[in-house]
Amino acid sequence: MPGTGRRPGNPGTKEAILVAAREAFAERGYDQSSVREIASAAGVDPALVHHYFGTKDRLFLAVLEAPVDPAEMLPQIVEGPVGELPERLVGTFLSIWDDPVSGGAAVALLRSAFQREPAARLLRDFLTTQLMPAALSRLDMGAAEVRLRFELVAGQLVGVAVMRYVLRLEPLASAPPPVVVAALAPTVRRYLFEPLN
Fold first, then answer.
1. C-alpha to C-alpha distance for 60 and 64, rounded to whole angstroms
2. In this predicted model, what pLDDT tens digit does every residue of 51-78 receive, in sequence order?
3. Domains in the chain, please, with CATH?
């Protein structure tokens, strides 16, 4: 029986899907890319995309080579008293970057984003589609204000990541996590809860 022209599952199929997805996400962004279009570009049936990656979110994380899965990380940030959200957010952020495996991947991702526009777009999409909605779901304010506050917090944390983990500037690079949390949490608290003007 003749085939449909679609590639069956084989060792190269997963990589073909990742290549097609990387191009789609970099060119059109997360929201404008569909699993069906990615499958077509890879020459496979959409069912194979779901077989290998499960969901579009997981495919995106695989393309991004994200050091963590937000679905696993976010509950430990958002659950608990809202007033302690800044400490939980900074503490979780540092634990990811301090981990030998996820930290190395995070540094590589950050360096790629600074050097290549496609990687920068993927990182922007990761922040805005995967992290922001869930991380700030407990803030009771308009979408535009939530986005601004999230970007202020992200800017603060990425700046610390560059200084602590990429440039390894001392004494920040070797400061114990509780010291960094205590220093950063008040700024994060202001960005999240206090008036911005």
1. 6
2. 998 888 888 878 777 667 777 777 788 7
3. 11-64 (1.10.10.60), 70-193 (1.10.357.10)
